[in-house]
Amino acid sequence: MDFAPYLTLAGLDASQATHVAQRITSWDELHEWLDAHAPEDTTPLPRRTSIGTPFMETSWKTALKRRFSRLQEDGQPVGEEPLWPAVVERRRRVSLITTLFLTVSLTLLADATLTAEHITPLLKTAYLLLYSIMSYFMIATFAKLAIGSWHALRGPAGNPWHPAHSATEPRPDARVAVLFPVYHEDPARVVAGMIATAQSICRYAPEHTQHYEFFLLSDSRKPGYRIAELAALNQAQEACPDILFHYRWRTSNDHAKLGNVIDFCRRWGKAYEYMLVMDADSLMQGNTIHQLLRMMEGNHRLGILQTNPTPILRESFFGRMQQFAGRLYGSAFSYSLQAMYMGHASYIGHNALIRTQAFIDHCILPDLPGKTPWGGKPLSHDIIEAALMARAGYEVWFLPDMGGSYEEIPANILGFLIRERRWMQGNLQHARFLFLEGLKPLHRENFLSGFMGYMSAPLWAAFLIISAASMVSYLQTGRLAEGTIAQIEVPSIMMLAASVVFLFSPRILAICLNIKREKSYLFGGKNKLVLSTLAETVFSFFFAPLMMAFISRFVWFWVKRKSISWGTQQRDDEALPWAICFRHFGWTSAVGIIATAILFYQLQKVPAQAIALLSVASGHWLRPESMFIWFFPILAGLGASVLIARVTSRTFPFLKKAGWFMIPEEVIVPQEITDMEHWNTHLIASIPDPDKLQDCVHYALMDRLFYIKQRARTRYRPLVAQAVLTKIYNGEKLSVSEFMIALGDTDCVDAMHRMSCDAYAQSPAAFPQPR
User: Fold this and answer.
1) Is 208 helix (H, G, I), strand (E, B) or coil?
2) How much is the pTM?
3) 698 vs 263, 275, 477, 704, CA distance in Å?
4) Cα-based torsion angle of the residue sequence 303, 304, 305, 309 in order, rounded to the nearest 10 degrees
5) Residue 339 · residue 90 · CB < 8 Å
6) What burial class does residue 739 get, using C-beta atoms within 10 Å of its C-beta: 0-12 exposed, 13-18 middle, 19+ buried?
7) Taking every annotated instance into account, which residue ranges of this chain make up the domain Glycosyltransferase 2-like (predicted)?
8) If we measure between CA atoms, which residue out of 496, 549, 455, 491 comes closest to residue 137?
């Protein structure tokens, strides 16, 4: 038996391995040599931290009472408070006043136009109430965008409080843990992102690699995934020898990603001053990461630095449109929010650097009283964590000017809606924190906006129903005269104008900022930039009613206390089968078809005299059937939802070739994306398929690199492994749970690998497999 390959994998060069292998003639001698000379597992020993939840009153009644009985806020600033909070508060008040003024003006104008006799006071009141609520939140978004964009024109250099101004080189003992929490994610894709990120750190900050260590935090329950994750991580360490990679598997996956991060803080929070929290699909440039560390080191008040991840790698029709929209409009909106929020920004849960001890002291969330979805651990915990960090006196900055941060988004409408339902449940839970003492006003606004962002869907549905019923009733009365046609036209035109101005202003602003030749080139050129924006805008008219219907349904489930879990996100571009489309979108198509039939039936009841009067009053432009033009996007979006879901989930290669929905990262591909795709291809070919347990077991038993790396992770545990070791020596089959126990014991790993190699060499059919 030639043991030289084992010695090479254990750290010797080829000549040393050949020389030493001449003195090793048996497996026992190899084991002795490995015990004495092989590198030990680099995973740091736990330095357990006691973690508790800071006091916070989550009963909104009690919190509201305390809020008005004690108006002072309890958050104590960390050190001397800077001047920017006063600037932020002034901009917030200007935005609030602007929003209130425009909302009241539009509501009064709508009230003045609704004077028809057939409209009952109750119906009119309901109409105006819904109109004012929806207008308020629509205008609030527009006001922040407009005011923030004006201040953002100066860029980071024009903001004297931007964290970049105080950045400094990190201290020698500063340590950053780069966390990748996973749950049944594709191990090849996750670890490929880890390798690409680590190599980028080595490329941009070669003298500072000692500051960074990577953790793969696994919540995976399936043994095949655990083996594949370990196999991929082994290769990551070989690919990046200057950076340490560690693996942690939780025996219980309580509270999903939040619980995984808290578990890390409990075990290693004292050892790492900072943690860079990632998602399974996250990818970051090394220079971006190091600049975040420099900012943290230069300002001890910074608690969270959040980058703006760029969506990448989508090929499906829906994915490309959303990717294009997020890259083009989202960046413009992000810059305005940075100017409006500064150090009171929000946090989106990944691609962000966090001060670990501050997070442990102030951001551990309690279990909300009551059953899920109203109670339990908040799903959208990131927004609350940002609010609690600011409540404690730390700064939370959202930095869209920091490029080199990437993520993947859902490739189809179904995946998008599944994610929205999880976010909705979390955002509705935020209402429990709305009156919490010490919160900054901007964070209270975020909670309220997030809550209303989903509650507005059923309100919008009710508004549309009331509008349609009012218009049909108005036509059926036959009391039309020249001049009264404005009672139909004006409210409709007002709502259309408000939608165009307030909802599509980010699109207009984004085009204006990127229409120059040198910028538009990165989006496929001027023509493709404008045409892609128009196409995505038209799609949004049909997609919005679909979202309205589903979110209204989700809200109804929430009212009935039907909870959901945070599962694995689909991250490929596979098209949705017709059966899946009919199963999930058939009901919305039915709603659209039925609503169209009802509207058509009601319009047939309009008297001939009313039809003639309507034609004359409108200058022969309108007939009762003209209502279908106004409601066409809504009815068509619902009625054709099955077709829309199917078609947009497909991939059309000609779109990318023609330059439609292009993003800069496709025109000039960053090195990190190229590296990630290279390592993803390599790992797919070299590690076992996590869904094929037999292949994973075969790999764990036979692969030399896996054996050497896994042996370093094991411990001698004779009491735990005694029964399993006896079965191995007797040639008995192991259960899956016994096999996973054996992978953690040194003697068991040695015995399984030796016996597997010997048996496989004699006869592959005799190769032992667990059940």
Assistant:
1) helix
2) 0.90
3) 31, 35, 78, 12
4) 180
5) no
6) buried
7) 276-504
8) 455
